[in-house]
Amino acid sequence: MPTIAHLILGHCRPNQLARLVRNIIHPDAVIFIHIDKRSALDEFLRELAPYPPVRFVKKRIPVVWGGYSMVQATLNAITEILSLCPRCDFINLLSESDYPLKSAPAIHRFFKHHLGRSFMELHFMGSPWWEEAQVKIAKYHLVNYRFPGKYLAERLINAITPRRTIPSGLVFTGRSQWMTLSAEHVKYIMSFVAENPKIIRFFKHTWGPDEFFFQTILFSSRYRNEIINDNLRYIEWVDGKSSPETLTHKDLDALVNSDKLYARKFNSLHDAKILDAIDQFILNNGDE
């Protein structure tokens, strides 16, 4: 079976995170968790102590919504994964709000038949997301900075500088930051990051680069034909909202009839019964 390195980004729900981990454990899986540096680790350590496959990413950083810090946290974790798990076949990016819709054996069997492929969501010119996302790259965004008068400075910078465009040679694409990448593609992305500091500086001054950083780099490479335009996640978007809907028991039929491997987002404090129902569905269906 292929080795999957699950990379989970978490910050606030250790109990739900432990439940996610319990459902993706497999002999051919390793699990790395990045906890936001502003969150205390103690409760996460207690909840996840029963699960020895888990490793906590050492180079933690505070993650700011909409900022490059989300990308940087992912890159830091990937560096650690490639060092400790050099022979892994896939890196699977999850959040603590995600949950599997299939059993761990079924997920590993799926990827056995798709070695060398990456699964990510790609939207292109003409799509609603692409059109709306132009403002995220066309203007300078100082999300990563904290200083008095930041927003005034941002407005002044954008008033006197020309409209920004994606660097030459890159095809702007993306949508959801949650994806599964082949190890070969991950290594290419990491090499690109190391060799193109000017382009990385461009991304650092965009808004929400986690939605398009990895997709844009990989699709603009020789590997574009090895990408499957499907991130294998069931996500319920509502027009006009920047975040997906929180899934509840009313969504159960759609979830169990989905061919996706994972779904998001869930909040066990709001509705834990939906997770119980998914567990029962997976149990009833064995390793399908």
Automatic annotation (TrEMBL):
GO-annotated biological processes: chondroitin sulfate proteoglycan biosynthetic process; heparan sulfate proteoglycan biosynthetic process
Cellular component terms (Gene Ontology): membrane
Chief location bin: endoplasmic reticulum
Alphabetized GO MF terms: metal ion binding; protein xylosyltransferase activity
UniProt topology in membrane: Single-pass type II membrane protein
Subcellular location: Endoplasmic reticulum membrane; Golgi apparatus membrane
InterPro entries: Glyco_trans_14, XYLT
Top-rank taxon, per record: Bacteria
Key words of the record: Disulfide bond, Endoplasmic reticulum, Glycoprotein, Glycosyltransferase, Golgi apparatus, Membrane, Metal-binding, Signal-anchor, Transferase, Transmembrane, Transmembrane helix
The protein's name: Peptide O-xylosyltransferase
Organism expressing this protein natively: Parapedobacter indicus
Organism ancestry: Bacteria, Pseudomonadati, Bacteroidota, Sphingobacteriia, Sphingobacteriales
